[in-house]
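Private note to self, pasted from the team thread so I don't lose it. Backbone tokens:
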């Protein structure tokens, strides 16, 4: 069996609390002008204390299920992409399953940083395509605010919290489908972007607690260079595999990390700026959630029309990268 797989619904959820660049300038030595010029970010959302990654993810999933017209009890598979799980074990997807009441679903997590949502899309698509599952809820959800060193101005201005989701199922006659996917990893670059502490390599102890090792560390300039090259190559790969050219692409939805990276990719793909979706000014970089939130907003804002071909492309810690060409 080899079924085409469609996106039947999308959803997203961001926490209520807005933190502006001016708010940040009261915590660290930074300013709105620096952040906007270097990144394009104006504000980000910060989850409340009792609001966990699973809560954000489940709320996004509820909206996607509603749009898809799929009841929670009929969900076969839930995969959450996250680097900020509620707990190291069990998987955040297990909490989401319980919250949704999706009792018969199989649920697990994937860790691929900002590329996570597209990793999960490929995995779920293949599992549906082979006939193993009829449908899947795929989720990118992050509460990065708990894994940021709020004294480090070089990282804390970049990130935010949020979640996005999509329902995948077998495509029916005349429906659009996922045309091509690409995922890749370079484990030789783990040092460029990581959360060094809190795992088995470096547990948090009383002695090292003050070093804030369970927070994001990044060599920004190096990451920037890899991001542009990998995303350009991965996007070109899925455009070509779908038998298309750049001019056939109605919209590019890139990972929302930095406007300068997005502009550089659009330039190299020769896609005009009005065909590139940007929402990072509102949310900053929400890692695995970023592409998923952007997809939902593009959908609900009417930026995607039936039959449109569009590309999503992402890049993150690992290093990882991923892209997909979709017919809407
Ligand atoms: N406010 C004010 N000044 C700052 C700030 C700040 N928040 N942060 C750094 N600076 C200063 C630096 O100290 C430096 O000062 P100096 O010249 O006196 O030493 C100066 O600004 C320039 O700093 P750079 O690091 O050179 O700035 P750059 O132009 O490289 O921008 C940035 C930094 C925004 C992080 C950029 O490198 C970037 O976006 N990199 C990619 C990050 C990314 O895409 N990550 C995606 C993956 S995330 C994931 O997977 C979870």
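Design output:
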């Amino acid at each position: 069996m080899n079924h085409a797989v469609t996106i039947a619904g999308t959803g997203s959820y961001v926490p209520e609390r807005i933190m502006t660049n001016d708010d940040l300038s009261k915590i660290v030595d930074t300013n709105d002008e620096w952040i906007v010029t270097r990144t394009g970010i104006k504000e980000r959302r910060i989850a409340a204390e009792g609001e966990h990654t699973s809560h954000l993810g489940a709320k996004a999933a509820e909206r996607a299920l509603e749009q898809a017209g799929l009841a929670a009890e009929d969900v076969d598979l839930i995969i959450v992409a996250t680097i900020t799980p509620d707990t190291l074990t069990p998987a955040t997807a297990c909490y989401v399953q319980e919250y949704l009441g999706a009792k018969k679903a199989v649920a697990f997590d994937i860790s691929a940083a900002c590329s996570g949502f597209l990793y999960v899309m490929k995995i779920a698509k293949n599992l549906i395509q082979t006939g193993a599952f009829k449908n899947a809820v795929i989720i990118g959800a992050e509460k990065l605010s708990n894994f940021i060193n709020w004294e480090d101005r070089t990282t804390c201005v970049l990130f935010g919290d949020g979640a996005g989701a999509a329902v995948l199922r077998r495509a029916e006659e005349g429906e659009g489908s996922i045309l091509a996917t690409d995922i890749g990893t370079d484990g030789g670059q783990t040092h460029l972007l990581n959360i060094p502490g809190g795992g088995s390599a470096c547990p948090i102890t009383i002695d090292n607690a003050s070093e804030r090792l369970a927070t994001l560390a990044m060599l920004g300039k190096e990451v920037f260079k890899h991001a542009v090259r990998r995303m350009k190559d991965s996007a070109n790969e899925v455009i070509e595999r779908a038998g298309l050219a750049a001019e056939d692409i109605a919209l590019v939805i890139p990972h929302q990390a930095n406007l300068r990276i997005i502009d550089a990719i659009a330039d190299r793909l020769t896609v005009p700026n009005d065909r590139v979706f940007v929402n990072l000014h509102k949310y900053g970089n929400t890692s695995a959630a970023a592409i998923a939130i952007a997809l939902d907003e593009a959908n609900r804002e009417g930026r995607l029309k039936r039959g449109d071909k569009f590309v999503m492309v992402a890049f993150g810690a690992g290093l990882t990268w991923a892209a997909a060409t979709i017919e809407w």
